[in-house]
Specification:
disordered N terminus; single chain
Length: 499
């Protein structure tokens, strides 16, 4: 096949007549070496590449008309013949089809990339990527039109997808899913083939512009997510029935962590979908059982189990409702029991016993909220509501709440000289001062829950005046520190006379 020579003026880049059959024979030989030979696949030497690239340029700028359509047809036929050969090899393979497929695919993909570089001029100037057609970009050429005109790497990918992957798809996808199932079952398998298969599907899917992930999502992601729901629905139900909630919490946490690591082999958009399904199956599906068991954990102060339950329930919307209510009830119940237990005894020591019981109950509750619930604002707010309910409960001793008076008398004992003689004998001044500051902070934290703050101020003012008149205050700094703390929850005018 030849075309008449156009007049030339010695310019090497000017259009000229080309014997296309001879040019293609040389190009086909080069393409075959790039695609087939392991020594040059994907990266032909410069000494080999330059003559081939020159041949491509000559065909694309030939006179009187370029051989663009012919090049495209020959390239398509070349890749179709090669992929047919690869399919025959895989069809005859009897063991570990997935591994052999990936080996041949990766070799083919590298070869396609090398061929693409050889046809750089064709790809850049003779293919209209936006429309799928092409135009002649050579010197003196005129635009031509042809449907479904692709660059070289796309021609190769289309051939592989249609003539190899599509025919083996069911076997390849099932083999990939079998690897995931085996890994979930604890078998010693390599997950690397999964990542390689994902790369294959994403690259083959890139043929469809703006819908690059459709092939991956339809062929692998959807079946994988479907398998995930089935697998964990069965496992989670059986584990709770046979091993209980406590064992299930630990198992669910480890399972989710495993899936997170496994999802790193998938396309990155799959991670959120996989975790959402896991949250639905492993947490939402068993939320009621987990929430009920949290009541037992609170009663036993099992912070580790509570923490696991919290971390799981935090993964779903509105996962804390029942646990918040249980936490409120537990704090109120334990605080009331502590106060009731502290009430019997001499009247003089009543303030110390009752207030100390309230402070201890709050401290214990804070420890659980911090250790198990990580000071989540919802749980901190529930802690405050429960403490407020106990501090203002008129039923604790069968009379209107005496907490404001008892707290004021507790402060008097705390800040009056001689009230801690036993402790003073065994501690240094620095230690006593540090402990005093801690106890003042605890008083302030309890004071904020009291509704009748004016009642507290009435008793506190009288007791403060008596300490000052008698010179019985343990420390002016301690008095100022407590008053400063009270001011946080009062208007300054109410504590101005205390200053």
């Amino acid at each position: 096949m030849s075309r008449s020579t156009m007049s030339r003026s010695g310019c090497a880049l000017c259009p000229r007549a080309v014997d296309f059959d001879s040019a293609w024979a040389a190009l086909e030989c080069g393409l075959r070496r790039v695609v087939v030979s392991p020594a040059v696949r994907g990266a032909p030497a410069v000494v080999e590449a330059c003559p081939l690239m020159e041949r491509v340029y000559e065909c694309c700028t030939a006179a009187p008309a370029p051989y663009i359509a012919e090049l495209h047809a020959r390239l398509r036929a070349f890749f179709e013949a090669h992929t047919d050969q690869q399919f025959d090899v895989l069809r005859a393979h009897t063991s570990d089809l997935l591994e052999e497929y990936l080996r041949l695919w990766e070799a083919f993909a590298a070869g396609c990339e090398g061929c693409h570089r050889l046809f750089r001029y064709f790809n850049m100037h003779c293919v209209t990527k936006d429309t799928g057609g092409y135009c002649c970009g050579g010197v003196g050429g005129s635009p031509q039109a042809a449907p479904a005109m692709h660059d070289v790497v796309t021609i190769g990918l289309v051939a592989w997808k249609q003539r190899v992957y599509s025919k083996l798809r069911p076997h390849l996808i099932e083999a990939t899913l079998d690897l995931v199932r085996a890994d979930r079952d604890g078998d010693a398998v390599s997950l690397h083939p999964i990542a390689r298969m994902v790369d294959c599907l994403v690259l083959l899917g890139s043929i469809r512009k703006n819908r690059e992930l459709d092939l991956y999502q339809d062929d692998l992601e959807f079946p994988l997510l479907r398998d995930t729901v089935t697998y964990y629905t069965v496992e989670s139900s059986q584990l709770i029935v046979h091993n209980g909630v406590t064992a299930y919490l630990a198992r669910a946490e480890s399972r989710i962590a495993e899936e997170y690591g496994r999802a790193k082999r998938l396309e990155q958009s799959s991670l959120s979908k996989l975790l959402k399904l896991l949250n639905t199956v492993c947490v939402e599906g068993h939320k009621n059982e987990i929430s009920r068991e949290c009541m037992t954990y609170l009663r036993d102060r099992n912070v580790d189990a509570l923490g696991r339950a919290y971390r799981l329930l935090a993964r779903i919307d509105d996962g804390f409702g029942a646990v918040l209510a249980a936490t409120h009830g537990w704090i109120v119940t334990t605080a009331r029991a502590s106060v009731v237990a502290a009430a019997p005894g001499t009247a003089d020591a009543l303030p110390q016993r009752v207030v100390a019981a309230l402070i201890t109950a709050r401290r214990d509750a804070c420890s659980v909220v911090r250790g198990a619930f990580y000071d989540n604002p919802l749980f901190v707010a529930e802690l405050d509501r429960a403490c407020h309910a106990v501090a203002n409960d008129p039923q604790l001793d069968g009379s209107p709440s005496r907490t404001p008076e008892l707290l004021a008398r507790y402060c008097d004992t705390l800040l009056r000289k001689g009230s801690n003689r036993t402790a003073a004998a065994a501690a240094t001044a620095d230690t006593l001062e540090s402990k005093l500051e801690d106890r003042i902070a605890e008083v302030v934290s309890l004071f904020k829950y009291i509704d009748e703050k004016d009642v507290f101020l009435k008793f506190y003012s009288k007791l403060l005046a008596r300490r000052l008149i008698l010179g019985a205050s343990v420390s002016d700094d301690a008095e100022r520190s407590l008053i400063a703390g009270l001011k946080v929850f009062l208007h300054n005018i109410l504590t101005h006379n205390l200053s």
